[in-house]
Specification:
The complex is a heterodimer of chains A (567) and B (267).
Chain A lengths: L1 H18 L4 E10 L16 H12 L2 H11 L3 H6 L2 H11 E11 L6 E14 L2 H58 L8 H38 L16 H19 L4 H17 L6 H20 L5 H23 L7 H5 L3 H80 L5 E6 L12 H27 L5 H8 L5 E4 L4 H33 L2 H12 L6
Antiparallel strand pairs in A: 1-3, 1-4, 2-3
Helix pairs in contact in A: 1-14, 2-6, 3-5, 6-13, 7-13, 8-9, 8-11, 10-11
Chain B lengths: L1 H16 L24 E2 L4 H6 L10 H20 L3 E6 L6 H14 L4 E6 L7 H4 L8 H5 L10 E2 L5 E4 L8 H6 L1 H13 L3 E6 L8 H5 L5 E7 L5 H10 L5 E9 L9
Parallel strand pairs in B: 1-4, 2-6, 2-7, 3-5, 3-6, 7-8
Classes of the chains: A alpha+beta (567), B alpha/beta (267).
Chain lengths: 567, 267
């Protein structure tokens, strides 16, 4: 029984070896080339590794739609198509397409050490028909090459696009910030950090000037006091009062009369006949002299009267007649003075110098006047300077805050500018990369070994099947025997029996068969033999007649086994 | 024709004495085989062809298979004589191992040897085969004797083989173990053993694992032999059988239906 099993197994192996349909494999090799323009010179924006990209391309090429198109075009797997859904057929087809990277020992250009790098890859396609295998592989190869170019161009275009957009954005921002900065500068002109030095200098100067002016003022005021003191000691009319009033020149007489009328007016009032008579006289004199308009005496009188009034008020109350009199005097003097002022409007002569007759007095007076003028201008100057200093102070006070904001703005602008510059340079590179791709000067795939028409099938290895079948038959028989022994553990042979019992058997009796048994066995064997012979001959005849002539079949089998291609 | 004369004389003596006797062998008669005269035992001559058909080939001189039985015979006789045993039971682990055939052939082979006579007893009461093998016409069987329905002499048969007497069984008895355990059986066994000094009794026992008959008989036996069929008996069966057998009485095993001719010494 074991032998028959072995025989059956071997027969199966033989049938397999002979009948199994062959598979042919077509192979192509594609080289992954380094870019024609050195990488350091122009860096392509595609930064991925070559083999990684090729894997990506593989995924795209092996897409179901592509494969279905190929299957339809070349009418592949017709029987399978009838039985199974397309997706299953495509999956099976993918297994028949093999992609393999080829590596080589290279020297890494950067580190100088020898490493392994993938320089190429092979594609192969298995099919039962060699011509079809070659055609299909050609198509797959062209898909690869086309896809590679497309992928790279796409990627580069995308990068350039993106960078352009970014650059525009950044440019806008920079402009915006520049405007902001300008506005700020305008708004805070003078408080800006760059103005500070000037501000301080100016402030310094104005403060100095102010101080100078103030000191000048002080000096002048002192002088004025001095002069006033001197003036107080001098009588403005003193050196010219010699005779009576008729001896005096008309001018002098007029002055005396004028002062006299005032005192009269105050004593008697304006309607008194003496007052009227005196007035007539004064008018005549005035006509004579002309309106000289010297009211220096009036002013003197006025000041004396004011003094008197003040003294009286100190002593008496306002209702006292002396106080009233004094007041009337002051007011009439003021009136007369006012009249005289009106008459003297056109004349611009210095009142002091015309009314006074004492030259020293006049001189002093003149000096005082000039000092006053100067003081006035100095004072206004001082005011100006003070104002200016205040302005500077204010500017300087505001500067820290301004400086802070200014610096912020400046920094933002700088950052934006730097960013913008960066993006711009990248964009330039990307544009270059684009032109690299367009000119195919970057990395590319090139076909160095086109798909060949396979002459011999790659599988099955028929000799190997036969040998293996033989070995397996042997093995299976051994295994079967062992299995039998293991499962049933029947005793075979005296040795086994001896092993169990500890002694060899007393005797070994053979199977006693009678002649009738023998005869029966022979008959059966004969029948089987005859029958199988009939079947064999009949089968051969049938094959010969209906399938193909036997000698042709023999040649085919011989070809299939093809003893020249072991392994 | 000394032999014939001697035989006739013996017969006369027997008629007078009524017992079966054996003449002592004189030194001058060492070559002549002993002749056993069965006076009471029925004789039935079975033709050789029937023997052949029944696969009882041990009596043949040309058949190489008979040699194997000769070997077995020699082994057993040696062991029996060394211990002084005279009864041996042939059994197997399971039924269908071929023990009955072995027992029958062994009995024939032993009967060929002139040194002893053989009594073959069929104790497989449930499936008695020996009568069939020898193609005997059985009026009575062992069970008839054990149930006191007949005398022993009526059951014994000589099948035409010198020095061989068969005690067959006729029917198939259900309560075999009770019968075998009866005192009558014990007595029979004792008698069969002690009656003749040079008679070997071979008991064809039922399979050990099929029933307890063999075990019941065990005390009545001197020795046991286990028949194992190659390719059929499993190791466990053999181990179980050995466990049941009394190791002191166990002589050994016989490998039956072996496909290999272990010894093909053509001689």
């Amino acid at each position: 029984m074991v032998a028959s099993v072995a025989g059956a197994v071997f027969l199966l192996a033989v049938l397999t070896a002979v009948l199994w349909p062959p598979t042919f494999q077509s192979t192509a090799t594609i080289l992954m080339e380094e870019p024609a323009v050195p990488r350091d010179l122009v860096r392509s924006t595609i930064a991925s590794y070559a083999d990684q990209r090729v894997q990506v391309i593989t995924q795209r090429v092996m897409a179901t739609s592509n494969l279905v198109a190929i299957i339809d075009k070349h009418k592949l797997y017709e029987e399978d198509r009838a039985r199974e859904p397309v997706s299953v057929v495509v999956t099976n087809m993918r297994e028949d397409i093999a992609f393999q990277l080829v590596s080589a020992d290279v020297v890494d250009p950067r580190s100088g050490r020898p490493t392994q790098a993938n320089i190429a890859f092979t594609l192969s396609f298995d099919y039962e028909n060699p011509a079809v295998a070659q055609r299909v592989l050609s198509e797959i190869v062209s898909l690869y090459l086309a896809e590679n170019v497309r992928t790279r161009q796409e990627k580069v275009a995308e990068t350039a696009d993106f960078l352009t957009k970014e650059a525009t954005k950044l440019e806008e921002r920079v402009t915006e910030l520049e405007l902001k900065l300008a506005a700020f500068k305008k708004q805070h002109a003078g408080s800006l950090p760059e103005d500070m030095r000037i501000n301080f200098q100016r402030m310094d100067r104005s403060q100095r000037a102010l101080r100078e002016t103030e000191s000048k003022i002080l000096v002048l005021e002192e002088r004025k006091i001095f002069l006033n003191a001197e003036l107080a000691q001098i009588d403005p009319q003193m050196s010219f009062r010699r005779g009576g009033i008729e001896d005096m020149p008309p001018k002098e007489r007029l002055k005396v009369l004028q002062s006299r009328i005032i005192s009269l007016q105050s004593r008697y009032g304006p309607r008194h006949p003496d007052v009227i008579r005196l007035k007539r006289e004064i008018d005549a004199l005035e006509r004579e002299v002309g309106t000289s308009g010297s009211n220096g005496e009036l002013i003197e009188e006025l000041s004396f009267a004011r003094n008197d009034l003040a003294a009286l008020r100190d002593r008496y109350s306002d209702a006292h007649p002396d106080v009233k009199k004094a007041r009337r005097k002051v007011s009439s003097l003021e009136k007369a003075l006012a009249e005289q002022q009106k008459k003297k409007k056109s004349t611009k002569a210095s009142a002091h110098s015309e009314d006074a007759v004492n030259p020293v007095y006049i001189q002093l007076r003149a000096q005082l006047a000039s000092i006053d003028l100067e003081l006035k201008s100095l004072r206004s100057q001082r005011e100006d300077m003070r104002k200016k200093t205040e302005v500077f102070d204010d500017l300087i006070a505001r500067s820290p805050e301004v400086e802070r904001n200014y610096r912020i703005l400046l920094r933002d602008l700088e950052n934006a500018t730097v960013e913008f510059q960066g993006v711009k340079s990248k964009l330039t590179e990307a544009e270059l990369g684009k032109s690299l791709e367009a000119a195919s000067k970057s990395e590319r795939l090139s076909l160095i070994e086109p798909p060949l028409l396979p002459a011999d099938p790659i599988s099955p290895n028929r000799i190997a099947i036969l040998i293996l079948g033989f070995v397996f038959a042997m093995g299976s028989s051994v295994g079967l025997a062992a299995l039998l022994e293991a499962t049933s553990a029947k005793i075979y042979g005296a040795r086994q029996l001896a092993a169990i019992t500890g002694h060899p058997p007393l005797a070994v009796i053979p199977d006693i068969v009678t002649s009738s048994d023998l005869w029966r066995r022979r008959v059966i064997r004969g029948l089987i033999f005859g029958l199988s012979l009939v079947v064999l001959v009949g089968g051969a005849a049938a094959v010969h007649l209906h399938v193909m002539p036997l000698d042709v079949l023999w040649f085919k089998i011989e070809r299939r086994l093809d003893f020249g291609t072991i392994g | 024709m000394d032999r014939v004369e001697k035989a006739l004389e013996k017969a006369r003596l027997k008629r007078e004495g009524g017992t079966e006797t054996q003449q002592p062998v004189s030194s001058s008669d060492v070559e002549t085989p002993k002749a056993i005269i069965y006076e009471k035992t029925r004789r039935q001559d079975i033709p050789e062809s029937k023997f052949q058909k029944a696969r009882l080939i041990a009596g043949s001189n040309e058949d190489w298979r008979a040699d194997t039985f000769r070997i077995l015979r020699a082994q057993i006789l040696q062991r029996l004589s060394s211990e002084g045993y005279r009864t041996v039971g042939i059994t197997s682990a399971a039924s269908g191992d071929g023990k009955t055939l072995v027992a029958a052939n062994l009995a024939i082979s032993m009967a060929m040897d002139i040194n002893q006579t053989v009594l073959l007893v069929d104790l497989d009461l449930r499936r008695a085969r020996i009568g069939n093998y020898f193609a005997l016409n059985m009026d009575y069987g062992l069970s008839d004797y054990l149930t006191e329905q007949c005398e022993l002499e009526e059951c014994l048969v000589n099948p035409g083989v010198e020095r061989l007497v068969v005690l067959p069984e006729r029917g198939s008895i259900r309560n075999s173990s009770e019968i075998l355990a009866s005192p009558r059986m014990k007595e029979l066994a004792k008698e069969l053993k002690t009656r003749y000094a040079d008679r070997i009794v071979i008991y064809d026992l039922p399979p050990l694992l099929a029933s307890d008959d063999a075990l019941v008989m065990m005390p009545n036996l001197d020795a046991t032999v286990l028949v194992v069929q190659e390719g059929k008996t499993s190791k466990t069966e053999v181990e179980n059988a050995l466990a049941l057998l009394d190791s002191e009485k166990f002589l050994g095993t016989v490998l039956n239906k072996s496909e290999r001719r272990e010894q093909s010494y053509y001689y």
